[in-house]
């Protein structure tokens, strides 16, 4: 006779499902214990033969981190064997390690996170999960490509708590070529890991289309705020929202979820449009947060020194300030905005504070989040709302 007893124990934080099997026979009682982890934990399993088997069950974040070294090895060590390329490949290893893994990785992790909501557990085989991790890192490579190039164009100082890549000794404008490598590397990985999948062409199309959209957004951003040519009449909320939609929202929010949808076999245009409507709204919310943190965030927390004021950027703060300031305050802004000296920057920040921009931002943040919740409820008809709610909860009230 066999009797099963199940219980959930709390051991050092993670939940452990401990299943105890008692085999009752004339020869005595044998107990077998199987411990299943519902979060990251290393457990010793006592098997029926009395031996111990230590197995680590990793979280998606840990799986994602572990995948990076494998992909670097694929690109640098296994892909091309020409001995004449050793120096170039070693340089590119440094480019990858310095620029790709340092951020929050929300974009890359959203691929596997979304796929877990879209597919039943029975379909999430090891191969499916590993390919989702690869596609996630491809998005992080695309992000790194954009950031390396953007930092050069903006003459930025720091990124993710370290000097921008182009400011490293011996790099300089060679970083332009390094950014090209980061972009080209993602397509080599897609070909290597996804070429035999039915969604491969969909992934190629969504990556190339998203890159094109982001370049359009960057172009509009640069044209609206040329260095040394301050013209506040160029700034409007309509133009700001267009820049944000194309420069940030498509690649940061729609791309990861759209990739997961294609990997789950969801190709219906209506469902993609519903997802896009939600995610572009979320991207706008995210960028406004970014603009606020550029001015009022703590560099020790955000990992970068904000330069939107010095760079004459069409940010949410300046656009919103223009809507509520007096003619006298506008004169101060026109005299100081887009200037590099610390005194001018501090005058702009003081002006923002006098206009209670922090209060206006927090009001907007709360209203935007509530609007987003309603949009998810209305548009997430056939798709699991958790795909979008998980994303929203990661960015709501963030400080970096």
Characteristic key phrases:
single chain, disordered N terminus, mainly alpha, globular, about 400 residues, 3-stranded antiparallel beta sheet
Q: How much helix, percentage-wise, in residues?
A: 55-70%
Largest sheet: 3 strands, antiparallel
**Poorly predicted tracts of residues:** 1-56
Number of DSSP helical runs: 14
Overall structural class, as computed from helix and strand content, comes to mainly alpha
Distance between the termini: 58 Å
Q: Would you summarize the structure shown here?
A:
The chain has 400 residues and is mainly alpha-helical.
Give a written overview of the molecule.
By secondary structure, the chain is mostly helical. Helices cover about 60% and strands about 10% of the residues. It contains 14 helices and 7 strands. Strands 1-2-3 form a 3-stranded antiparallel beta sheet, with no helix packed on it. It has a two-stranded antiparallel ribbon with strand order 4-5. A two-stranded antiparallel ribbon has the order 6-7. Strand 2 and strand 3 form a beta hairpin. Helix 1 packs across helix 4 and helix 3 packs across helix 7. It is globular, with a radius of gyration of 25 Å.
């Amino acid at each position: 006779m066999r009797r099963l007893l199940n219980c959930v124990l709390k051991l050092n934080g993670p939940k452990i499902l401990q299943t105890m099997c008692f085999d009752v026979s004339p020869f005595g009682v044998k107990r077998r214990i199987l411990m299943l982890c519902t979060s990251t934990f290393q457990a010793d399993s006592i098997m029926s033969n009395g031996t111990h088997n230590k197995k680590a069950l990793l979280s998606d974040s840990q799986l994602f981190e572990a995948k990076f070294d494998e992909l670097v090895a694929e690109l640098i060590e296994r892909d091309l064997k020409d001995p004449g390329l050793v120096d170039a490949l070693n340089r590119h290893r440094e480019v990858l390690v310095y620029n790709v893994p340092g951020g929050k990785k929300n974009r890359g992790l959203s691929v596997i996170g979304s796929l877990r909501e879209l597919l039943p557990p029975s379909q999430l085989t090891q191969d499916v999960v590993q390919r989702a991790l690869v596609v996630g890192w491809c998005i992080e490579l695309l992000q790194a490509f954009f950031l390396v190039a953007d930092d050069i164009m903006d003459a930025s100082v720091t990124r993710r708590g370290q000097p921008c890549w182009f400011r490293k000794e011996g790099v300089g404008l060679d970083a332009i070529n390094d950014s090209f490598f980061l972009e080209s590397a993602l397509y080599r990985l897609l070909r290597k890991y996804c070429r035999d999948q039915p969604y491969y062409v969909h992934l190629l199309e969504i990556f190339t289309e998203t890159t094109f959209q982001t370049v359009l957004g960057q172009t509009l951003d640069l044209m609206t705020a040329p260095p040394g040519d301050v013209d506040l009449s160029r700034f409007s909320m309509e133009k700001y929202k267009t820049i944000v939609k194309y420069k940030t929202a498509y690649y940061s929010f729609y791309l990861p979820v759209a990739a997961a949808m294609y990997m789950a076999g969801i190709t219906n245009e209506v469902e993609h449009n519903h997802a896009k409507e939600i995610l572009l709204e979320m991207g706008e919310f995210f960028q406004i947060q970014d603009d606020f943190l550029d001015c009022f965030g703590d560099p020790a927390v955000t990992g970068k020194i904000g330069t939107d004021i010095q760079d004459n950027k069409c940010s949410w703060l300046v656009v919103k300030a223009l809507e509520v300031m007096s003619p006298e305050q506008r004169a101060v802004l026109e005299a100081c905005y887009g200037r590099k000296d610390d005194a001018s920057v501090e005058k702009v920040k003081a002006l923002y504070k006098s206009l209670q921009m922090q209060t206006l931002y927090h009001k907007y943040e709360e209203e935007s989040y509530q609007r987003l919740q309603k949009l998810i409820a209305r548009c997430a008809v056939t798709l699991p709302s958790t795909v979008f709610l998980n994303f929203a909860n990661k960015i709501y009230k963030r400080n970096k």
